[in-house]
Amino acid sequence: MCNLYSLTKGQQAIRDFVRASRDTTGNLPPLPGIFPDAMAPVVFTNQDGQRELTMMRWGMPGPPQFGGAPITNIRNTASPHWKRWLGPASRCLVPATSFCEWEDTKPRKTPTWFALSDERPLFAFAGIWTTWTGTRGTKAEPVTGEHRLYGFLTTDANTIVKPIHPKAMPVILTTPEEMDVWMNAPWKEAASLQRPLADNTLTIVARGHRQDS
User: Fold this and answer.
1) Which of 10-14, 41-45, 66-70, 146-150 has the lowest mean pLDDT?
2) What is the CA radius of gyration of the chain?
3) Do residues 159 and 201 lie in contact, with contact meaning Cβ atoms separated by under 8 Å?
4) pLDDT 10s digits, 96-150
5) What's the CA gap between 60 and 150, in Å, rounded?
6) Contact, 111 vs 207, CB < 8 A?
7) Which terminus of the chain faces fewer neighbouring Cβ atoms within 10 Å, N or C?
8) Which class for 145: exposed (0-12), middle (13-18), buried (19 or more C-beta within 10 A)?
């Protein structure tokens, strides 16, 4: 599963790419390593019908029958637990410049970074989000209250990702048209985007580090 990604482009470039008309993230620094439970920029449709770039916490509420632990990657969209968040109001775009999968090497697994090219152009994960009340964060620094939480969809790995992580890869959107479908279309149409990215559109850009600077 993808439990690490980066976002290193400038704030204006991110707003332009996702076509956000409102930005409540504040002064956004480069984020070369975004881990589960971290705060990161996410685009959702606000109550005014505008695309808003805001900070959310990575990890959706998990199924209660499995303890409710946070889930970063969502594969089984047929599950009743996830169906409630598949409508346009709960969909979001998660901007990124690269993502990491862990190659099963010895003695330690090797972080391997994938991007659209060496220049790391922006793309978006197809995400879902919700509000949730409770305690998140670390034991040393717990954060209690209402949280905006997000996760993103995964799918079969393509031939570039499969040698490193055979089971899955994130659902990646690269064009305005794909992002529009994800944010606005009925689920039957939006579900067609839960597919591997074409093999010739991904490349390995770095290995061995837990950040992609």
Assistant:
1) 66-70
2) 16
3) no
4) 999 999 999 999 999 999 999 999 999 999 999 999 999 998 888 899 999 999 9
5) 5
6) yes
7) C
8) exposed
Contacts of 186 (CB under 8 A, 6+ apart): none
Both tokens of residue 126? 């197809």
The amino acid at residue 91 is: R
Please give the single-letter amino acid code of residue 62: G
Closest CA to 40 of 103, 112, 125: 125
Pair 202, 160: CB distance under 8 Å: yes
Distance CA 12, CA 68 (A): 36
Residues in Cβ contact with 177 at an 8 Å cutoff, skipping those fewer than 6 apart: none
What is the rounded CA–CA span in Å between residue 145 and residue 141? 13
Amino acid residing at 139: K
Tokens of 86: 């598949």
Burial of 5 by CB count in 10 Å (0-12 exposed, 13-18 middle, 19+ buried)?
A: buried
Q: In this structure, is the dihedral angle defined by the CA atoms of residues 161, 82, 129 and 64, taken in order, positive or negative?
A: negative
Structure tokens at 127: 């995400």
C-alpha–C-alpha distance, residues 165 and 124, integer Å: 20
Residue 55 pLDDT exceeds 70: yes
The position carrying tokens 């839960």 is 194
* Residue type for position 58: W
The model scores a pTM over 0.85: yes
